[in-house]
Amino acid sequence: MAHPLSLLALLTISGTLLAQSRPREGYAAALPRADLRPKDDESNPAILVNISKLPKTVEVSITAAIATLSLQPGVPSIVFAYNGRVPGPTLNVREGDHVIVHFRNDLPEPTTIHWHGIHLPFESDGSPFRPIAPGGTHDYEFTVRPGTAGTYWYHPHPDRRTGFAIGKGLFGGIVVHATDDPLPPMPEKLIILSDNRFLKDGAIDFADPHSHHGGIDEENGREGPVLFVNGHLLPTLTIRSGELQRWRVVNASAGRIYRIALSGHTFLHVGSDGGLFEKPVEVKEILITTGERVELLVRGTDAPGSKTVLQNLSYDRYSPQTRPSDWETTHDLLTLQTTDEAPVAPVAIPATLRKVVALDTTKSTAVRTVIFSQGLINGKTMDMSRVDVSTKVGATEIWEIANIVGMDHPFHLHGFPFQVLDRDGVPEPYRSWKDMLNIPKHTSARIIVRYDDYPGKWMFHCHILDHEDHGMMGVLEVK
Ligand code: C2O
Ligand code: CU
Ligand code: CU
Questions:
Q1: 8 A C-beta contact, residue 168 and residue 155
Q2: Ligand 1 centroid to 126 CA: how many Å?
Q3: Which residues, 6+ apart, have CB-to-CB distance to 361 below 8 Å?
Q4: Whole-angstrom Cα distance, residue 280 to residue 401?
Q5: Nearest to 336 by CA among 230, 259, 264
Q6: 427 C-alpha vs ligand 3 centroid, how far in Å?
Q7: Which ligand is nearest to the CA of 128?
Q8: Which is the closest atom of ligand 1 to the Cα of 155?
Q9: Distance separating alpha carbons of residues 201 and 376, to the nearest angstrom
């Protein structure tokens, strides 16, 4: 039961919210609850509880609802939350598991849950074709394909409202564990990156689409100056001297592309969207486009008691006309504190992680062309009643994706992981399974994909959410 005074305060905030966003029926009735912010471990969001007693089965419940959380310390914001949390609790599964998600939509607007990057039946994809009405429920069901151990994420995908719904707080991680992981056991951290923008009263700031700022958001994808790690501001993570840690990083931002670096350290980049590479790659920094994931190993090479910072370095994805004024600023994301404990001996990392079997280019039966211009794919905006690419189950195809304009557009395909063949004609140096690929301004790339089972209508789109919502999306029908 909320105290009358705080209830009044909440009503005031929700009144502001009403004025901000497109009003929907039921908003007034769906009074926000004065939830206390759950105290998560900052280095790992909470986990969805598996209620199944059956072997190889994960059965969980997710409710999307309005909540009040202090995303910024001491300032309550009205958010959309999965099970009352931002980010939502992590779906933790193993290859081969059968997954059942009992979903309930307590939001005042239609929504879906899309399991970004997971290979699953069309009925469970949570695409805009399958909206769940306010008050409605749906069971999402799929079996996790062997060989797909990796980091994924879930988020809403309603027609033209995805950016709004994710910006309000709806996103969560998915970790698919391998049945035989080549990496030795070590501490793991899931790091979900997001950014947001707030009004003084704490309300999440969505600009009026007709305003100047609204126009910038539509062009760049909505960005905010507040950068979150697992919903926290500049959290402190710990590592022991000598220790090796496995970090899984998810970019859940609408438009921001991260270029992460840990001062005084290199990373061992070990994996991407669909899991591990064939071999670790030593790098100083990693670019993570919207919707993309990376797996990396961090070595605790510092002395006990010292501190270092994970930073987001500047990256110019913008057209010169709409570049934000602070685009060159380096942002601190988290502090990595080396504990006072005595150093441990580092565990050994295998030189070969796994085999990533190349899809066979000689089997390709079609070449699809995707041309990204500003807001358009092949000159068109999204039409749910149109099929843009039609193909058959089992076919292997090459897609040529060209970005002909002066800002980056990240390509995403639902349902079927792909491999990158080349970028601007340069062969990809190492193979990996991808579902996100940034296409920098005035460049092109070729990918190869095989439509293993699961007929249906699958989306492909730019993963700058404002672009997607404004129609930078197409339909791939697999029959
Ligand atoms: Cu991450 Cu179509 O979505
Ligand atoms: Cu997706
Ligand atoms: Cu785009």
A1: no
A2: 9
A3: 398, 421, 448
A4: 27
A5: 264
A6: 24
A7: 1
A8: 1
A9: 36
Q: Can you name the residues that pair with 244 across neighbouring β-strands?
A: 299
- Could you tell me where the beta strands, DSSP code E, fall in 4-124? 57-72, 75-82, 88-94, 98-105, 114-116
Phi-psi region of 179 (alpha: psi -120 to 50; beta: other; left: phi over 0): alpha
For residue 179, the one-letter residue type is: T
Sign of CA dihedral 375, 381, 387, 388: negative
DSSP H/E element including 162: helix 162-167
Q: Look at residues 221, 283, 218 and name the one whose alpha carbon lies nearest to residue 251.
A: 221
Task: List the chain pLDDT tens, one digit each, 479 residues.
Answer: 334 334 333 333 333 333 333 333 333 333 333 333 334 567 799 999 999 999 999 999 999 999 999 999 999 999 999 999 999 999 999 999 999 999 999 999 999 999 999 999 999 999 999 999 999 999 999 999 999 999 999 999 999 999 999 999 999 999 999 999 999 999 999 999 999 999 999 999 999 999 999 999 999 999 999 999 999 999 999 999 999 999 999 999 999 999 999 999 999 999 999 999 999 999 999 999 999 999 999 999 999 999 999 999 999 999 999 999 999 999 999 999 999 999 999 899 999 999 999 999 999 999 999 999 999 999 999 999 999 999 999 999 999 999 999 999 999 999 999 999 999 999 999 999 999 999 999 999 999 999 999 999 999 999 999 999 999 999 999 99
The phi and psi torsions of 321 (rounded to 5 degrees) equal: -65, -30
The protein residue whose alpha carbon is closest to atom 1 in ligand 1 is 116
For the record, the structure tokens of 5 come out as 């005074």
Residues in Cβ contact with 406 at an 8 Å cutoff, skipping those fewer than 6 apart: 319, 320, 441, 442
What's the CA gap between 428 and 445, in Å, rounded?
Answer: 10
Query: How many CB atoms are closer than 10 A to CB 200?
Result: 7
CA–CA separation, 191 vs 363, rounded Å? Answer: 38
* Burial per residue of 205-236, b for 16 or more beta-carbon CB atoms within 10 angstroms, e otherwise: bbbeeeeeeeebbbbbbbbbeebbbbbbeebe
Question: How many Å from the N-terminal Cα to the C-terminal Cα in the chain?
Answer: 52
Say how many residues make up the chain: 479
Other CB atoms within 10 Å distance of the CB of residue 5: 8
Question: Which SS3 state, helix, strand or coil, does residue 219 take?
Answer: helix
Two structure tokens written together for 315: 């990256």
Q: Which atom of ligand 1 is nearest to the CA of 291?
A: 1
Q: Rounded to an integer, what distance in angstroms lies between the CA atom of residue 4 and that of residue 251?
A: 39
Give the C-alpha separation, 383 to 91, whole Å. Answer: 32
**C-alpha of residue 155 to centroid of ligand 2, in Å:** 9
